[in-house]
Amino acid sequence: IKGQLHDKGGPLQVEGVLTLSKQGDYNLRLALSVRDPQQTALKNALRGLGRPDATGKHNISRTGNVSQLGLF
Fold first, then answer.
1. Closest CA to 30 of 65, 10, 22, 53
2. Of 8, 12, 46, 62, which residue is the least packed, with the fewest Cβ within 10 Å?
3. What are phi and psi of 24, to 5 degrees?
4. pLDDT higher than threshold 80 for residue 68
5. Total Cβ atoms within 10 A of residue 45
6. How far apart are CA 33 and CA 56, in angstroms?
7. Residue-wise pLDDT tens digits, 16-57
8. What is the pLDDT of residue 8?
9. 10: buried, middle or exposed (CB in 10 Å: 19+, 13-18, 0-12)?
């Protein structure tokens, strides 16, 4: 399964891809950015994720198996 993730507006811009295998392995890649540079609290919160790339986006990548998430 492969899903595209997009926000529907608001102060946080989110783009990403989630892939899930039959065995439950997942790969999540997200790019987060602030739409309005005046949103300083949100910009500061994103800084906790590390430095943004050259385009101003904070890239996050997570992999694992859904069994490790404690959802079931």
1. 53
2. 8
3. 95, 5
4. yes
5. 14
6. 7
7. 999 999 999 999 999 999 999 899 999 999 999 989 999 989
8. 94
9. exposed
pLDDT at 72 over 70: no
Q: What is the pTM of this model?
A: 0.82
CA distance 12 to 14: 6
For every residue of the chain, DSSP letters joined together read -EEEEE--SSSEEEEEEEEE-TTSEEEEEEEEEES-TT-HHHHHHHHTT----TTSPEEEEEEEEGGGGT--
- Cα separation, 29 vs 4, whole angstroms: 10
